[in-house]
Amino acid sequence: MSAAVETDERYDVVIIGGAIMGAMAAYFLTRDPAFTGTVAVIERDASFARSSTTLSAASLRQQFSIPENIRMSLFGLEFLRTAKERFGAETDLSWHEGGYLILASDAGLPILEANHQVQKAEGADIDLLDPARLAATFPYLNVEGLAAGAYGRSGEGWFDAHALLDCVRKAARRQGAHLIAGEVVEIVRAGDRITGVTLADGRRIACGSLVNAAGPRAGRVAGLAGIPLPVEGRKRCIYVLHCRTELPRLPLLVDPTGFWIRPEGAYQICGAAAPPEDGDPDDDFEVDWPLFEETTWPDLAHRIPAMEEVKLVRAWAGHYEMNLLDHNAVIGPHPEVANFYFMNGFSGHGLQQAPAAGRAIAEWIVHGRSLSLDLGVFGYERILANRPHAELNII
């Protein structure tokens, strides 16, 4: 960080991070008739081989505990449903409304019921099922130890993350965004303004505004500007399974023990939260095989007995951009460095909320506030005040 820099080029808005968050911000900026400036999106991994976007389970739900999270995901749903209108009749995002089924024990029932009331108030199509209805609806389930399950009858499911990212990036580029391959190693700040960035290859780029869309590296990027941000990468493994027994209408099921599973073509994919780790492991892409064999598989076979004979086909590892304060997004401008914008820390639900986040950032930059949704609860001010606003449904 330094006070001034000689620049090789200049853009009105520079976005650090070109995966789904940065792409959405560029897309909504360049399609706003009131925006007449220039946009550059800088991405360090042009292949996206290690991107949280492309390594995710690519799912969408309304089952959150905070109204604003539900509203953001409802816009994500609208975005997916209108993709052909936005990007052309040939667009195929493989959107499948298979629903979520979040299960609760007696201990978790009060939270599940309270969340369900919030979801109903926001118009989400979620049904609360008792054990008898769970067993009747999903006969392959072992309902032992369950008090209820919240099931998304519509508006929840999964899609093709690669296809979505490709559509949005191409659209942003057609609309005038400049896509730059490079890694930001310096953010130049003069008092309460960001003036530019320097790339690892020495390129110097001046900017009018800077957007942090750096995913699991967002905390490091903010640190380049002298701004603390408690966002770090947290590894999550996804295992591809083949069950010999047919599991009709299998939703994305979330068990009280922590594992989740959903269909993926002729297979299933599943995952579970990893044990607590020290440090920031965002460069660790090694699959944790013992996690599946020793923990996830036994829990899975207990809940779905047919999984006793499951075949583990393959696996991969990716990263959540985890907000260590409260597992919720940080969105909007810095209260003091007013041309520095956050879209970080979604803690596992970023892909589905990227359309709403990108639209909000574009509105803040162009119009001075988020017009479509009031997202003030996710502002950076709570980080400064160490005032968590926790999301209870983290998967």
UniProtKB/TrEMBL annotation:
> Annotated Gene Ontology MF terms?
oxidoreductase activity
Q: Which UniProt keywords apply?
A: Membrane, Oxidoreductase, Transmembrane, Transmembrane helix
**UniProt xrefs under Gene3D superfamilies:** D-Amino Acid Oxidase, subunit A, domain 2 (3.30.9.10), FAD/NAD(P)-binding domain (3.50.50.60)
Question: Where does the source fall among the domains of life?
Answer: Bacteria
Which residue positions does the secretion signal occupy? none
Q: Which GO terms describe its cellular component?
A: cytoplasm
Q: Which Pfam families match?
A: DAO (PF01266)
Residue ranges annotated for the FAD dependent oxidoreductase domain, each copy included: 12-364
| Oxidoreductase listed as a keyword | yes
Tell me where the transmembrane regions lie.
12-29
**BP GO annotations:** mitochondrial respiratory chain complex I assembly
What is the protein name given in its UniProt record?
FAD-dependent oxidoreductase
Organism for this UniProt entry: Ancylobacter defluvii
